[in-house]
Write a structure and sequence with these properties.
It contains seven helices and five strands; from the N terminus they run ααααβαβαβαββ. By secondary structure, it is α/β, with parallel strands linked by helices. It has two domains: about 60 residues; about 110 residues. The chain has a five-stranded mixed beta sheet with strand order 2-1-3-5-4, sandwiched between helices. It starts with a helix and ends in a 10-residue tail after the last strand.
Length: about 190
């Protein structure tokens, strides 16, 4: 987790204290029948858990939040979109609810190339959130869009992504109509 989330080395204090306390308590319990019921054992356990919890609050949770870029994309759109802008997401799937929550306006969920072509062909300005791979696919198929804003972030939504093979950051984008194109052309 230190490498994946770019945590400082001090973040290892929490897990280290937990392991040391566990080892000490295990050693004591092997040497005495009553060691596990001693008040010191209780305080040692609670202290280790408290230090670990503090480390989670101070280092781990803020690092996770920094990697969540969909709320940032939605706020960027909310700050710039006029009432005439149409807002959509293209194949964001599990991030759609988060995007809709933070953008605070009606959002169209687009899942197919045909739906995307229809959306881009309609008159009026728009913003469409997507990942870079989807953007490249749409542009290769002639979509008249360009990148208005982008951020790198964690594409995984599960903690398992932290201890399995290392995945590169996902690039999340906000696309808009390419300058100089009109609806119905270039598609």
């Amino acid at each position: 987790m230190v490498a994946r989330l770019a945590l400082p080395a001090a973040a290892l204090v929490g897990p280290s204290v937990l392991v040391i306390a566990g080892a000490v308590l295990t050693g004591r319990s092997l040497g005495s029948d009553r060691a596990g019921r001693h008040p010191r054992a209780l305080w040692m356990s609670l202290s280790a858990i408290a230090v670990t919890y503090a480390g989670l609050l101070v280092w781990v949770i803020p690092a996770f939040e920094q990697q969540k870029v969909v709320p940032d994309l939605a706020r960027w759109v909310a700050d710039r979109a006029s009432p005439t802008h149409r807002v959509a997401t293209y194949r964001l799937n599990r991030w759609n609810p988060t995007f809709r929550f933070y953008v605070e306006r009606h959002t169209i969920d687009i899942d197919t190339l045909h739906e995307a072509a229809r959306f881009f062909d309609e008159p009026g300005p728009f913003y469409c959130a997507m990942v870079e791979q989807s953007y490249r696919e749409l542009v290769a198929r002639g979509a008249p869009i360009e990148i208005a804003y982008g951020r790198d972030g964690m594409g995984a939504t599960s903690g398992r992504a932290l201890w399995r093979q290392r995945h590169p950051a996902t690039r999340f984008l906000i696309a808009t109509r390419r300058a100089g194109t009109a609806p119905g052309r270039d598609q």
